[in-house]
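Study this chain:
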Amino acid sequence: MVENSQVQLVEKPTTAALNRFVTPFDISKLVAEYGTPLYLVDEDTLHAKAKELHGAYSKFKGPVKVAYSIKANFTPAVVKSFMKDGMTFDLTSLGELHFVKQCKADPENIIYTSVTEEPDEYLEVLQSGVRRVVVSSFNGMANLAKAASKIGVRPLTMIRVNPEVGVKAEVRASYRNGKFGVPFNGGTIDSATKMVKHIMGSDLLKFEGFHFHLGSQITDFSCYTHALDKMDAFMTKMKKEYPAFQVNTFDIGGGTPVFYNDPVPTPAQMAENHVGRLNQLAETHGTFTLMIESGRYLVAESSILVSRIVNTKEYNEHKIVIVDAGYHILLDAALLKQEYPQEVVPVVDSKDRTTALTTTVKNTHLAGRLCDTYDVFPLSKVSDLSESDVGRYVSFYNVGAYSVVFNMPFHCQTKPPIVMKDGDGKFRLVRKGTSYEHLFVEEGGDLA
C-alpha cells in the first residue's frame, strides 16, 4: 500500500520524458510532403502503453481487461492498432459505435456506456451485437429493457455508481449530486439499491456488475481506496438481500496520469495502491473480471503536433512567437490550460545532420494563429523555445488525447492530416487533411 495513497515524486521534470519517435530529418521530410500543422502518431507507443497498463495490474488474482475510451482519439488507425492488442472498447455514442463497427471490432470487445440512454439508441446498440451495457439511471435501465424485449436478447447490465468521494484531479467525475452514475442510496428510484433490485427481478436484463469513474489525471489515489471501501459495504448489503447476487465484471474507470508538466506516478505505482483491496473484494464477494479504462494514458504520449513559426515580435524584453496551429486543434490548451511540452525542432543541414540548440530566450510566449485572447499556449517546465525564429518548426508533445477529436473550424480552419509511424518504422497517411472547399461544402456552401 502506498503511504497516504499518494506517490512522492521528487525528481525534476526532464526532456528525457518526451517521446521523440521521429527525428528532425523525419520531420523535415514529412512537413515538406504534408505541410503544417501536422499530427504524427507512433504505433509502437500505442502498443507499449496498452501492455504497460495491463501489466500494472498483474497482481490482481483474476482476469484483467483494459478498455480504451475512444472519445480520447477515435482515429480509425488508432482503433485498429488497439484491436491488435485484444483491447476492449469503451463507447458512449452511436457515432463511436459506427467507427468501431467500420473497423471490424468484435462486439464482444465493446462496453457501451451512454449518457442519454435513449430507447432507439439502445435498440441499435443491441442490434449491432453489443451485449455489455452500463446504465446510469433508472429510466435508462428501463429503456434498455424495452430494447432488449424487442429483439429477444438479455444484455449483461452494469450499473454506473457515483461513489461520491473526494477526488483531487484535473477533471473530477465523482462528487455529490454529480452528472454521472447514481448514488448508492439517493431516496429515489435513481439509486444503485433500487436498480439492483429491479435487475435481479428482471427477465429482460442480466446483472453483470458495477462501473465507476473518478476523474482524469489522478495522482492522489486515496479516492480509489474510499470508493472501494464504499463498494465493499454496498456489495455486502446486496448479497444479504439477494443470495444470487454476483458481480462478474468490476470496472474502476480511468484516471491514470500522463506527463505534461510535472512528474506523475506510473501505472504500476497507481495499481500498487489498490490492487490489494481489489483482491480482498474478489475473495469476499467472488472472482470477477477487473476492467481498467483509459483514454488519455493510452494515446497521449503517442502523438506529436508539428507547427511552423510564421511570425515573431519583441518588446519590453518579451518575445511573442506565433505558430500556424491554434487551440482549434489543441483545445485543452485553452480549456484546461494544458501545459503541453514544446520544443523547437533542430535544423537539418544538407548532409542530414541536425544543428544543436544553444541559445536560450527568456520571456518567450507561444501564441496560435487565432484571433482570440485565449489562443496562447501554456508552457511546460520542459518546454524549450530556443532559436524560435520564423520558418522553424515547433513540436508539441503528448497531444494524442483530446486533440484531433476537438478539431474546430473556427476562422474557417481545416483539419490537419495525420501520419502514423507503423511498427516497421514506415510512415503512412492515416487521415487526409481537409481543404477550404471541403469545409465550404460541409457548411452548406453548395446549398446556398
Notes: The chain has two domains: 43-299, 302-442.
